[in-house]
Amino acid sequence: MTLLRLRQDRLQWVELENEVIALDEEALAYLSANESAALLWRDLAAGTTVEQLADRLVEHFDLDAEQATADVSGFVHELRTRGLLES
Predict the structure, then answer these.
(1) Is a pLDDT exceeding 90 seen at residue 1?
(2) Are 23 and 33 in contact, with CB atoms under 8 Å apart?
(3) Residue 30: exposed, middle, or buried by beta-carbon count in 10 A (0-12, 13-18, 19+)?
(4) pLDDT for 67-82, tens place per residue?
(5) Per the count of CB atoms within 10 A, which of 10, 44, 50, 52 is most buried?
(6) What CA–CA distance (Å, rounded) separates 87 from 82?
(7) 0.90 cut: is pTM over it?
(8) DSSP E strands: which ranges in 7-84?
């Protein structure tokens, strides 16, 4: 299992009403995360795995494991593409 963590050196964020508003300081871009992505964001800030993230979605939103894993994989892929995860 690979530990995933947000890059603290280039991200600033705040949580507002179950959402996250983030600033990518390197790209000078604002990002927003809805309730489900905000849940994942909090865990990614501390360090987590794809499996743990999928489990969180299953627990919190009552998704089936296959759908949760697909959703997490897509979200993690987007963060990697933007360079927002530690390598």
Answers:
(1) no
(2) no
(3) exposed
(4) 999 999 999 999 999 9
(5) 44
(6) 12
(7) yes
(8) 11-16, 19-24, 29-33
Distance in angstroms (rounded) separating the CA atoms of residues 14 and 71: 22
Cα–Cα dist 3/23, whole Å:
23
DSSP string, 55-75: HHHHHHH---HHHHHHHHHHH
Encoded amino acid at 39, one letter: L
CA distances from 77 to 18, 62, 81, 84 (A): 22, 23, 6, 10
pLDDT in tens, 19-61: 999 999 999 999 999 999 999 999 999 999 999 999 999 999 9
